[in-house]
Amino acid sequence: MTKFFNILLLLWSISFLSTNAQSAKKNTYVKGDVDQIIQKKYDVKHKKGVFSIEYENDFSSDIFNYNHQNIITDAEYLNDKGEVVWHYKSTFDASGNVLSDSIFVQDKLNTLFKNKVIDNLKVESISYDMNGDINTINRKEYEGEDLVKTINLDKEEHVISIIEYENIDGLTKREVEKSPTGEIQKRTTYKRDSLGNIVEEKVLKNDKPKFKYFAYQYDEKGNWVKKFIYSHQRVLQKIETRNIIYASDKQKVSKSDIIGDWFIYGMKKDGFVFNEDQTFYLQGHPDQLGFWSFNKRKKQLILLESKDSKNELVFECALKGGLLCLTKKDSGKELKHEKRPSTIDDQWTFKMIEKSFYGKWKQVENENAHIQFLPDHVVLIFEGNKDPQQGHWHFDFDNTLLYIKKAGQEENEYVYFFEDNQLKLLNHYLENIKSFERVIDQKEEVLN
């Protein structure tokens, strides 16, 4: 076996760790006959006007397995080395209601949740520690099928907290968390997109609002496959991906499916490039070409060092949830590969940052002066009772510069930043020129 194939085999032996599983139960709404979801979160980096995913050698991920009712039956969490840190399993009654959830850490039972179900609604959940002693008690109240109240108690049944819910179309719009005496501790308000996923989360605590923003990319069944997570200034910070494997997905692999750049799932830069002329090379080594072929009937990918070589590597080949899965025939070890975009499209980055300006702002130094930023870079400037002046605005995120041009006047350039719900404009000596406070609860001409 030559050095070329030794590299391939070494890469294989190191990387297969990423295929062995994942995490914890989450309230995830899914559509279609989902069999499994593989979920992973990435940091985002920004450099010279470009946002991209920061890939590392990190095999951590969450794997959720579903039954035919789209209820999670079990899940695993993998750490960055691809090791199962903890997992859980659920048990069900004849109607498919979850009766218990068992959480295991290093294969030892750590926590057990036992549920009480009435009319197909979970009305109580009691958690037990590894010794079988009660930890906490959780009781729920409903109006119809909508959850309206959760009461959290300790093992002595003393109230720890109360959460009240306001719902629209079966989805939570607002949560109010109260102390045992009924004092409001926190208010959380949600805005959702047309598919019910949260796009804005506002948490009001100690009279200080904190915002989080989200956006989603969906597959053809209406399940999100990418979740974009933003700061309070709508700057992209993280991306969560989901590879969704459907029970009815019997996609046949063809030669054209294999062609392209593939990266090993969980590795920073290792993978394969399969060319149309049936040559291939390892990522980063285009000068070391091998040859590949695909046996459609056997669903096998064959790699050769040269066309005349007798040394070959044979892999069982399948497409699962957008992943190219290669299984080494003699070992049964599966290695997942993914395609990666080089950058993140502007609609998920700069277009979202732009929305942090949208709306009407009142000048702190002059309460009769307002400015309103609208889509399509239109700005309205209000001074007292005069008709608003229309102009044009744009921004430079890399250099934190804001440009405002009134009709018929020269363009003004400001250094900008957001602080405590204020937009501050500075000159190039970093001296504060104007500060604006956002006007709350007004009807803005903004499409979110």
Give the gist of this structure.
It contains three helices and 33 strands.
Rg, nearest Å: 27 Å
N-to-C CA distance: 58 Å
Q: Low-confidence parts, pLDDT < 50 over ≥5 residues?
A: 6-28, 442-448
Global shape: flat
Number of domains: 3
Strand content: over 45%
How many DSSP E strands?
33
What's the helix count?
Answer: 3
Structural class: mainly beta
Main beta-sheet annotation: 16 strands, antiparallel, barrel
Q: What is the residue-averaged pLDDT?
A: 89
Across the major sheet, the strand order is: 1-3-4-5-6-7-8-9-10-11-12-13-14-15-16-17
Residue share in helix: under 10%
Give a verbal description of the structure.
- Keywords: Signal.
- The chain is mostly beta strands and 448 residues long.
- The protein folds into three domains: 23-106 and 158-246, no CATH class; 255-338; 357-438, Beta Barrel (Lipocalin), CATH 2.40.128.270.
- The protein has three helices and 33 strands.
- The strands form three sheets. The protein has a 16-stranded antiparallel beta barrel with strand order 1-3-4-5-6-7-8-9-10-11-12-13-14-15-16-17.
- A hairpin with a 4-residue loop joins β19 and β20 (279-282).
- The protein is flat and about 85 Å long.
